[in-house]
Amino acid sequence: MASKRNWNVKSVLDWTTKYLSKISKSPRTDAEILLGYAMKKDRLWLYVNYDLELSSDILDKYREVVKLRYNGMPIQYITGEKTFMALNFKLNDKVLVPRPETEELVERLLMDARANGWKKFLDVGTGSGVIAVSIAKYIPNAEVWAIDVTEDALKLTLENAKRNGVSERVHVHKGHLELENLDVVISNPPYLTEDEWEKLEELHGEPVEALVGGKDGNGVYEEIIHRYSPKRFYFEIAHPFRSSLKRLFDENNLRYEIFKDLSNRDRIAIVWREDGTSTFG
């Protein structure tokens, strides 16, 4: 981005879109989010001010964040925020960036929880707390325990619970808990295999411990099903539904149903013990 040229909103967005197309699948969106962040304006404001000439201070700040994005930093880490389930969350590079597929997991749980009157939930590996906070927000009488192994994640979850007005019903805890009479254990655990993570270079800007679930990707699932006995487990899973994960469920006498996401990829596993009764058709 040449410094001596006069840049307006449109020209700087056009240039950045082309520049970021080398590393991003959504370069125009990235360019708009970053410029809005630099200017403290929303994207709608940008659209109606295309001809506004940008000051040198704004351009300097914008160059800095565009460079971060070009070097592989997820855009949510740059802006420090992420919208999930129509709620606003603070985010940082100590936790995984929430994906739209995880919203589908939460939506499925909310639908089933309302139908069954479930009120007691445990979110394992809460990260930024998007799952736990969303459950508490959309089920007003829910009590949600959010656990993780890192203080950074728990601090962020508590901050996001306060931000969204549910901190009295989201209980954060480091490590596993002894909880009885749980209705649901939900988790979007690290489920990539070590080999998969090595090949997915676009994910290398995020914490590996939030992505890789051991050599076969099933380590955290196994830990959860051996430790807890809720009415239902809700898991996000890799596509396709792995034979090794199927074998883990079968060997532990678990029943399950697999649901696809909007991209027609295996994404949600609802799991219950053999002596339970399925409510899913």
Question: Which outline best applies?
Answer: elongated
Indicate the CATH class of the largest domain: Alpha Beta
Rg value: 21 Å
Question: Structural class of the secondary structure composition?
Answer: alpha/beta
The overall strand count is 9
CATH architecture of the largest domain: 3-Layer(aba) Sandwich
Q: How many helices?
A: 11
How many separate structural domains? 2
Which percent range describes the beta-strand content?
Answer: 15-25%
Say which CATH homologous superfamily of the largest domain is assigned: Vaccinia Virus protein VP39
Flag low-confidence runs: 277-281
Mean pLDDT: 93
Order of helices and strands: HHHHHEEHEHEHEEHHEHEE
TL;DR of this structure?
With 281 residues, the protein is of the alpha/beta class. It has helices at residues 9-20, 27-39, 43-47, 56-70, 75-79, 100-116, 130-138, 151-163, 194-199, 219-227, 243-251; strands at 81-84, 87-90, 120-124, 143-148, 170-174, 184-187, 232-236, 254-260, 266-273.
Characterise the protein shown here.
This protein has 281 residues and is an alpha/beta fold. The protein contains eleven helices and nine strands. It has helices spanning 9-20, 27-39, 43-47, 56-70, 75-79, 100-116, 130-138, 151-163, 194-199, 219-227, 243-251; strands at residues 81-84, 87-90, 120-124, 143-148, 170-174, 184-187, 232-236, 254-260, 266-273. It has a seven-stranded mixed beta sheet, with helices on both faces. The model is unreliable at 277-281 (pLDDT under 50).
